[in-house]
Every structure is written in C-alpha cells, then in structure tokens.
Write a structure and sequence with these properties.
about 30% strand; binds adenosine-5'-triphosphate; BirA Bifunctional Protein, domain 2; about 575 residues; binds magnesium ion; Rossmann fold; five-stranded mixed β-sheet; globular; alpha+beta; EC 6.1.1.15
Length: about 575
C-alpha cells in the first residue's frame, strides 16, 4: 500500500482526553478516531489490526468445532421479554422504537436471538451438540465509557453459544473453547491468565474470565502466591477463621462522637482498633432494604450479597433513603435496636466482642456492642471482599492482587434461557427436554487496545508480527532521487510477489518525519532506501529491538524469511 493512497492521520501531540498509553497511541498513530463518547471509527490501520485479531479468533473457534453465522444488532423487544431481561438488564441496554412504535434493542449480547433461532430449527438430540458463533458489533450504554477501545459503547465482540443434550457434552465443549481462548490470547502474544469469575447478569454457574495482566485493568485478580488459584476478587471466597477474644463482656454505652463519620475517624476518636468497629451499610436488594454488617477493616462485596439473595439488583441505598429508613445519615448507622429490617453479617462480625457501631442517631455511637445481646443477625455468611494476605481459598498459600483487563469470558449457562424461551428437544426416548447451553465471549476490539497497551515504547506502538497491520514499512529517504525511487518500487513489487504486506511511504516528507511516523505506527520491520541505493544496499531496522541490519537487495528475501519465520 502506498502511504499517499491511504489515510493514516498521525498526530504530533498526545490527545488531551486520552489517559492511557494504548488510547493515546492508537489515536496518535492514526489507527482510530472517536466519533462520540465510547464510539470509534477504525481507520485503515485500525481496521487491518482488527481483522488480524478477528482472523485468529475465527481460526481457533473453527478448530474448536464452532460454526460462524451473523445475527442482527437490531433485536425485537419480545425476545427480551420472553427471557425477562427486558426488565432486568438496566440502562446499559439501548432501547428504541421503529416507525410503528414497536420496541427494539441494539443487542448488547445475543442469548435471546440465538436461542430463538435454535429453538425453531433444532428439534432432536441427533442435531446436538451445536456451537454457533459470530463476530459482530455490540451496543452497551456503559456508565463510564473510557480508555478508548477498552470500554466502548459500541464495540466488536465474538460471541459463541453452544447447545447440548446433556451436561457431559457441555463440559466437553466448554473445555474445548477454553483451550481455543488460551490459543487465541497466546497467538495475540498477550500476557493473560484464566480466572474464576461471577456469571453476573447472564445467570449461569461454572464460569471463567480471561484477564490480560495490566496496570490499567479495571478488574482485580486475587491469586495465590503458591498455587495456580486465581479468581476475580468479586468471586474469591474468604476462608479465614476468626477467633472470638475471651475478654469480659461490658455494658452497652452510648457515646457522643461529634463529626466523626468514617471508620477511620471513629477508630481514632474512640481509640479502638478498626477490627472492633462494625461497619453498617443499608443496601437495596431488589425491592427490599437489608442492613449489612462487616468488620471495620473489611469491604462489603455486593456480588456476594447479590448471590446470597439471588437478587437482580443490589445497590447501596441513597443518602435520603437511608435517612428515611433509619433516621440518620450513613456515618451513624448500626444494628442495635433495629427490628424491622433483615440484618446479615460477615463471619468476622460474629467474633467481635465489645465492638463499636453507629447509634442510628446523628453524632452518636454505641460502644461495648455484642452480638446476640444487643442485636441479632439473620445470617452470618461470607460477605466481604478478599484482601491481600488472606489465606488462598484453595488452602495453599496467601492471596496477592494483580490488575487485569477482561478480554474473554466463558460461561456454563445451563437451562436459564432454554427454559424461559422454551427451547426444547426430543431425547432418545422421545422425551421433551430443555437444551443445555454455554456461552462464550471475546472482546475483539478490546484485544486491539490490550495488545497496544502491552506492546509500546516511548516512540510508539510495537505490533507483534501476527497482528501488525503491515509487515514492512518501506521508506525511501528521498523520493526525488530516481535511483532510490526505482529501487523502492522494485523491492515493493518483489515483496508483494512474495506475500509480504508492505506499507510504502511514498510521501514527499522529510526523513525525520517519516522515521517518527514509522516508529509511531510500529510495523515489525522498517526498510530504508537511501544513498547506497546505487549499490543495491538497504537498511533494515527491527522495531522491537531497535537492531539495524545493512544488507544487499539479493539477501532481502532470505533475511526477511528469517525475521518472519513464525509467520
Ligand atoms: P466488563 O466487566 O468489562 O464490563 P462484561 O462482563 O460486561 O465485561 P461480557 O458480557 O462477558 O462482558 O462480554 C464479553 C466480552 O466482551 C468481555 O470479556 C469483554 O472482553 C468484552 N466487552 C464487554 N464490554 C465491553 C465494552 N464496553 N467495550 C469493549 N469490550 C467489551
Ligand atoms: Mg459490562
């Protein structure tokens, strides 16, 4: 491709609104442009990279037995009403009406559509298992679209769905796709890890996320320092055992705690360790309020709370709701004398003796609070986030944290959708049964950003060979020099004939500009044709290592064959 014939609008300055390296560089090197918040165009270079990633995904999905199809982004509301998600999905679902007033959504995912197709077309166990996938644009009205392609409102996903007559078959396909995902991320050269995850709004059981380890990741991975245990912290169970101290139980007392709101404030004001404070929070769990207690140095894990109540929506009550229900503000809450609310507590709270909590009265706290005597709890369960230093849930070693970008997710859905939408089949005995399902997503456009985030230096992007938009960046130093131009054309054609994809910088720019752009764009090999063109000499620069090699044009193909040997 001649550079003068394509569109690669590189920028000199880092765009001000881009916070992380990958976002800055993809904009600066002219791969993408933002059209609206969380909505991007892939310019020619970006599109090529996206296609490379798509191709890897396609090959590995096909190898795992998947079959590609394409479903619509525009989905009728009726399907979502059948599954129930029309009502539970929340504001991320983009809803719209057609000219007849019929309701639609722009698909954030395709369980409903695929289930309706398979329900209509597959009736017998003889047609199962079946794994279908697509690579398609998804829409999610994210609360906080950010970091460029990492969290968009319109993005490219590979989503796959498998249908089975029994759980053994689901287990088998789940394993195959798990392996396909590992192959995909390995081929993309990503530093990743598979972790145990929560099934979220999808409603399933066995599930893993594939995380790219990165400082800019929004997820936290809890992993063991001495085994291969790794989980999203949302999911990691806490197995710590707490010993109740044998200090004498003292009399409950109400004390004034003017202006002291946070656990840290109270702990230092009353000279009590945080471990003796009872952190009390009012949550709205679907339609009812629940009082949740954890130890002062712990944090409530709302996913665990959600799973405990099998709820659709769990959120912290707003300040005005808290005032209305308990008569005070958030910093003064406590469980003492609360009789008309369900109270649940983390195991650690059970071990607190002579503790401290809010008195449900502005500026007052109770001290010497004891469970059983001063308040009752309906359930003691694991409700807190795991912390660094906690024992690993598999019993081996202690927990450490790392940040991760979720690039893929595999779920065993079971019959969540087939039952709701009546997708049944006839088994060997002619008995009608709901199909058992799995679903498997990959953030294809997110992978592009994750690769850019992992592979760059101060001068720009450094694409892995299999992902790079072109293989070689061909740069004549002086386009006005006939010898240089002729040799450039000759080698451009030669490489093309030998199936190298070459970007030929035929612009009449200064060499400095061309080199800076070349480093920014980050193709694996730069080939410079300068003064020694007359002798047939060219210079290769390896983008990744910075290594320079001067060779004769006759050695070009063999040298490149060596450099691209895994291609
Ligand atoms: P997240 O927790 O990051 O919001 P999710 O759990 O909502 O992800 P899934 O519903 O499992 O994501 O979607 C499958 C894959 O699609 C994810 O693993 C991720 O790689 C990608 N993905 C999800 N949301 C976005 C987004 N807003 N922008 C880009 N990619 C996304
Ligand atoms: Mg999400």
């Amino acid at each position: 491709m001649k550079q003068s014939m394509t569109l690669i609008p590189t920028l000199r300055e880092v765009p001000a609104d881009a916070e992380i390296r990958s976002h800055q560089l993809l904009l600066k090197a002219g791969f993408i442009r933002q059209n609206a918040s969380g909505v991007y165009s892939f310019l020619p270079l970006g599109k090529k990279v996206l296609q490379k990633v798509e191709q890897i995904v396609r090959e590995e999905m096909d190898r795992a037995g998947g079959v590609e199809l394409l479903m619509p982004a525009l989905q009728q509301a009726e399907l979502w009403q059948e599954s129930g998600r029309w009502y539970s999905y929340g504001p991320e679902l983009i809803r719209l009406k057609d000219r007849h007033g019929r309701e639609f959504s722009l698909g954030p995912t395709h369980e409903e559509v695929i289930t309706s197709i398979v329900r209509d077309e597959v009736k017998s166990y003889k047609r199962l298992p079946l794994t279908l996938y697509q690579i398609q644009t998804k829409f999610r009205d994210e609360k906080r679209p950010r970091f460029g392609l990492l969290r968009g409102r319109e993005f490219v996903m590979k989503d796959a769905y498998s249908f089975h007559a029994n759980t053994e078959s689901l287990d088998e396909v789940y394993k195959k796709i798990f392996q396909a995902y590992a192959n995909i991320f390995t081929r993309c050269q990503l530093n990743f890890r598979a972790v145990i995850a929560d099934s979220g709004a999808m409603g399933g059981k066995d599930t893993h996320e594939f995380m790219v380890l990165s400082e800019v990741g929004e997820d936290t991975i809890a992993y063991s320092d001495s085994s291969d245990y790794a989980a999203n912290i949302e999911m990691a169970p806490v197995i710590t055992k707490y010993d109740k101290s044998n200090e004498t139980i003292k009399e409950l007392q109400k004390v004034e705690t003017k202006q002291q709101k946070t656990i840290a404030d109270i702990s230092s004001f009353l000279n009590t360790p945080k471990e003796k404070c009872i952190k009390t929070l009012l949550f709205k769990v679907d339609d009812k309020y629940v009082l949740v207690l954890v130890r002062g140095d712990h944090e409530v894990n709302d996913i665990k709370l959600k799973n405990l109540f099998e709820a659709q929506i769990v959120e912290l009550a707003e300040a005005d709701e808290t005032k209305e229900v308990l008569g005070c503000s958030v910093g003064s809450l406590g469980p003492v004398h609360v009789s008309d609310l369900e109270i649940v507590a983390d195991h650690a709270v059970e071990a607190i003796v002579n503790g401290v909590c809010g008195a449900n009265e502005e500026d007052y706290h109770f001290v010497n609070v004891n469970v059983g005597r001063d308040f009752n709890v309906s359930k003691f369960v694991d409700l807190r986030f795991i912390q660094e230093g906690d024992p690993s849930p598999d019993g081996q070693g202690t927990i450490k944290f790392a940040k991760g970008i979720e690039v893929g997710h595999v779920f065993k859905l079971g019959t969540r959708y087939s039952e709701a939408m009546n997708a049944t089949f006839l088994d060997e005995n002619g008995k009608s049964k709901p199909m058992i399902m799995g679903c498997y997503g990959i953030g294809v456009s997110r992978i592009v950003a994750a690769i850019a985030e992992q592979f760059n230096d101060e001068n720009g992007l450094i694409w892995p060979v299999d992902i790079a938009p072109y293989d070689v960046h061909l740069i004549p130093i002086n386009m006005k020099d006939d010898t240089q131009r002729q040799l450039s054309e000759e080698l451009y054609n030669l490489l093309g004939e030998n199936r190298y994809d070459v970007l030929f910088d035929d612009r009449k720019e200064r060499p400095g500009v061309k080199f800076a752009d070349s480093d920014l764009i980050g193709l694996p090999v730069r080939m410079t044709i300068g003064k020694k063109a007359a002798e047939g000499m060219v210079e290769l620069k390896i983008r990744k290592s910075g290594e320079m090699i001067e060779i004769h044009k006759d050695e070009l193909l063999s040298t490149l064959a060596e450099l691209f040997k895994n291609k």
